[in-house]
């Protein structure tokens, strides 16, 4: 019986141990992700931002700070001369109301523009802008329980949007069409929750005695409770909302503050920093621009050092907000902001993280992969005339990061709003390490972060910026920093892929549009500065630097702390047929006023060089050249331009820039893979030379004074013929239909190959001169492809949205595309689109296609080719919630200009199949929505037609081919009455009789810099990831101490700096801690050189001698923590815990359990052995009598010899 009980007990023990081991493995691999359980709710965090204008309320900005009485007198005196009587100043009851301010919020009940203009005419009033209301939604939605394990650290609340999307289908009501703002809902990646401060080795600086003391850090969020157990140095809590509470009702502000300065459990970076909590969002997640402006002013008064802003939106034209951000950084406030959660789409950066003086932060997971949700660059507010800048500035952990809960404990969250406080906490800790605090400013801190960043392999600059945050390297840079200027990026290498994408994706050639690189100048010498004289272009003659020419555009004043340097690169005429690599560098000298306490009084200057390396090829055949029309694309902001696909509920606004390197990135990549060269036109049609793309003279009118090449027709035909013969193509023929469908087709020899002007999703109007120029160009051989979108005034009125809080309607300024303007442009060829709105799946040339909120072709030339399909009438579904099927909807038309040497025209009614932002499933809808497949194959076929005149047989002989519509039974779409497109248009302007075209602007003129050739070889290319570059070097083999022979493992080698004596580019002198205590000697660790012949060496910050960078002597200090409360665990009070630098909470908690269980196993083993010994039968052996030599008192148990 005893044995049975023992065996049963052992069996239960083994089962328990196996289960515990399995759980331990899960804890090690998945951390706080528990096994699925039936009673657990599975929630996924979604973040939504939107903003709207508050009706009748305006922000009046002044030219300085004035008292409330003075501000009132200015407004009163300005409005006296106007007829506005019904106005008042809205009171603002917050901590800054007792101080002078630079703005006022007024309410004007009458809509009189003259009154607003009168206000702006006052000498002390700088600007009058509408008051904006900001919505942020933090909510959880149910996800698949089988895929999401239970997590005890989850949030239990489910937050609803202030303007919820109630519809999942168009036929269920009209709520969907009243969707407001940009609802960017993304399922965030799940990652291993870790102690992020120790993962980034903050414990090394803690043990040096740096814990963020005497640094004031502000958290602009949802507040913080008064007696939260994780914080010991909350200096001030202020409320800027209309709610009478300072506490955090959502938990987001508590989490952000915990990542920065929590002192226990989920420990923050700077536990001794002074926390200033600014509650700027209500529990309903609503805020106003004026609340932020007051809070920002108060932060300036409190001399805040670091400010974290884990919010953002696409509205970079909210001028009062942006102006105040500049003023904050000008007052030496280091602002850190999240770039947004709208990835993986490009061109989705949020404001203010896209500003030059703000540190924009992206997110990665703990495996150093760019998080899918993290927004991507480039910045888009420079479009269409220029080119976006490199953002984010830096990336860090933002997936599965642990932070403080609302009432204590920890939770794991993901998002760039998590990555932002990680950098803000690291910056706070770094500021506390600088002895000369006057050297720390927004520019110097950004310089240190980007110089020390570790570049991630295989990731481009618009995804990772300068790379992953490296806290210890940034500390080294700051320890010997001297004020200077630097550039971001620090070099231009058009041959380095993938980091320099998209610049590296296409070589440059003579006659092409100039390549524009927008470089940011960071000025660490002062808040204001200037460029001395002009930037200088110095080509290296041995490296063919004279084969390129460079033009500059730059900030006249660098303020605050930064400016821009736009570099246009083109190929000289002498290199028109040359192929090779050209190199040179640009030299920029920046000057800033001397410091106030400086004795010299002279300006501070800093000279920096920007290496340039480009790949040049001979001009490609014009049949392979595609010109992308960027000038006529509009997006939000400033106006309400609705989404192109009305089924997509998570993107109600068209705001990604419509650029080939943003939301049309995949299309661009496909065209490049097919051998096409894509150029961007950022000016009117009158500013490009059609001779580069078409056969004829290109028409009269001004052209941009670039290096456009000209060839004779004979030369062009010879080149085109040789190009086709090399590719094994037969002589091209053009199928032209004459007469009714089914009649014999007439074969006409194709004309010379031609380039193509590609117009996709155009919302802008057109100058009359553009229409005339385009007609001449097409008649002379230029081809044209137009991808349109929906336009229906009734639907536009339906998709307006009503804000219940402000009682204001937002009306679209145009549809998905500006059909009336396109029809006027195409009318000369008897072509036009209708106002029909269609949707549906179909098959074309054995390809599955999806037509997403497209229009139809209303009229087309009789001898053209038209393809029709059967679709649902989506317009009827939107307007009346009824379903109808329409047959023979014309969607695709192909036409050859009959004139000799004429080009070809293609019309297609939907652009969503090319747009990355719409070629994805709608994750918001509860009902499955069709996924728009790409139509790149169709674009290839159309380019074959426009370039070579080759009609794809799948289209010319398609069963869906029908007679072209004549347009006799259709009414041309008209512009919506009362639209405000003229406010945002580059073409229209307001007149008394209505909007009319402006005067045609002059074409951009590039003034090429005079080269200063250098008859010397370019500096030898170095690996750009040396000390101030990108990656941690790894030793060729792990060394051993010279005396005590204690092995130096890789974990110890890279875990801390406490045993580092000094760094250099090639080696590190280290002493093993154990060896040091035993009298061991330091050892020089050699690092292997990694080959990267195509990469340029990063520009090191000036005046930093790495051989003199010595880490301060080790001081065994650690952050001070408060006494433990009853029942609390102190496992996280020790920096580094059991295993420094790694997440080890579960290990620390499970070691006692395993020790107890191990003891039980040993005890059970001995119990079993004793029971076996007692129950074993004894065997009797024959006794052998032997003579006993010694008389024994007691007989022995065994015979003796």
UniProtKB/TrEMBL annotation:
One of its GO terms (biological process) is cholesterol metabolic process. The chain crosses the membrane at residues 1151-1171. Residues 212-467 form the Peptidase S8/S53 domain. Its cofactor is Ca(2+). Residues 53-132 form the Membrane-bound transcription factor site-1 protease-like N-terminal domain. The active site is at residues 221, 252, 417. Residues 488-618 form the MBTPS1 third domain. This is Membrane-bound transcription factor site-1 protease. It catalyses: Processes precursors containing basic and hydrophobic/aliphatic residues at P4 and P2, respectively, with a relatively relaxed acceptance of amino acids at P1 and P3. The keyword Transmembrane helix applies. Pfam families: MBTP1_N, MBTPS1_3rd, MBTPS1_4th, Peptidase_S8. It comes from the Eukaryota. It is found in: Endoplasmic reticulum membrane; Golgi apparatus membrane. Keywords: Autocatalytic cleavage, Calcium, Cholesterol metabolism, Endoplasmic reticulum, Glycoprotein, Golgi apparatus, Hydrolase, Lipid metabolism, Membrane, Phosphoprotein, Protease, Serine protease, Signal, Steroid metabolism, Sterol metabolism, Transmembrane, Transmembrane helix, Zymogen. Its EC number is 3.4.21.112. Residues 1-24 form the signal peptide. InterPro entries: MBTP1_N, MBTPS1_3rd, MBTPS1_4th, Peptidase_S8/S53_dom, Peptidase_S8/S53_dom_sf, Peptidase_S8_His-AS, Peptidase_S8_Ser-AS, Peptidase_S8_subtilisin-like. CDD domains: Peptidases_S8_SKI-1_like. Belongs to the peptidase S8 family. Residues 1176-1186 have a biased composition (Basic residues).
